């Protein structure tokens, strides 16, 4: 009976050990997937940040070149501009080319600024979507890992409870067997005393 108890308890313990190993392997697998996704997320973030920075840098350089060009044009205009023109015996005012030029330049600058801002916003949106997708995958894996961990823990608890129950039942049976054996020995002893 002791051997039967030990054999059954050993079998249950082997199941517990195997389940614990399976749980550990699952957790390591999920953790490595999470780690890989976090690395991918960091790479995506760097990629999108680099794209945005490149556009911002190009825009800054363009603005500097435009400002320089505007200053050069203003200098050339100042050197060549005529204020009043005397034509056909009278002073004639020509179109205010400066005002027209300034308005056209302001419009072009504004349109360029809007286009760059729109491009940056689109890249930021794509970056956010990429990072959100990775964050969601990480969250899903963490939830899966937690659910699996709870499942393994419940199975381990159930097996341990079963182990304890089997051990208790065997101990009770062994105690009953010892009590019966003692009673039988007492009866044999009493019987042998009566016949002696």
Polypeptide structure, described:
With 196 residues, this protein is mainly alpha-helical. The protein has a two-stranded antiparallel sheet. α1 runs antiparallel to α2. The longest helix is centred in the C-terminal third of the chain and has 99 residues. The protein starts with a helix and ends with a helix. The mean pLDDT is 85.
Brief summary of the model shown:
This protein has 196 residues and is mainly α. Helices cover 91% and strands 3% of the residues.
Low-confidence segments, ≥5 residues, pLDDT <50? none
Q: Which structural class should the secondary elements be placed in?
A: mainly alpha
What is the typical, i.e. mean, pLDDT? 85
Q: Gyration radius, to the nearest Å?
A: 44 Å
List the total number of helices: 2
The major β-sheet equals:
2 strands, antiparallel
Helix content: over 70%
Number of strands: 2
**Approximate strand percentage:** under 5%
Q: What spatial order of strands do you see in the largest sheet? A: 1-2
What is the global morphology? rod-shaped
User: In sequence order, what are the helices and strands, one letter per element?
Assistant: HEEH
Termini separation comes to 34 Å
Please tag this protein with its features.
196 residues, mainly alpha, two-stranded antiparallel sheet, 91% helix, 3% strand
What secondary-structure arrangement, pairings included, does this model have?
Elements: H1 2-80, E1 85-87, E2 90-92, H2 97-195
Antiparallel strand pairs: 1-2
Helix pairs in contact: 1-2
């Amino acid at each position: 009976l002791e051997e039967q108890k030990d054999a059954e308890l050993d079998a249950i313990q082997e199941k517990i050990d195997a389940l614990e190993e399976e749980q550990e392997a699952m957790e390591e697998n999920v953790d490595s997937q999470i780690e890989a996704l976090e690395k991918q997320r960091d790479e995506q973030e760097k990629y999108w940040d680099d794209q945005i920075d490149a556009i911002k840098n190009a825009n800054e350089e363009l603005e500097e070149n435009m400002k320089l060009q505007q200053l050069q044009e203003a200098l050339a205009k100042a050197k060549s501009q005529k204020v009043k023109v005397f034509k056909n015996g009278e002073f004639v005012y020509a179109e205010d080319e400066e005002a027209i030029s300034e308005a056209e330049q302001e419009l072009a600058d504004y349109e360029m600024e809007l286009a760059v801002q729109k491009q940056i916003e689109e890249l930021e949106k794509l970056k956010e979507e990429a990072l959100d997708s990775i964050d969601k995958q990480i969250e899903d894996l963490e939830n899966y890992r937690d659910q699996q961990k709870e499942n393994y823990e419940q199975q381990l608890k159930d097996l341990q409870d079963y182990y304890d129950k089997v051990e208790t039942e065997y101990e009770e049976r062994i105690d009953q067997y010892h009590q019966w054996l003692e009673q039988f020995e007492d009866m044999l002893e009493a019987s042998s005393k009566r016949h002696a």
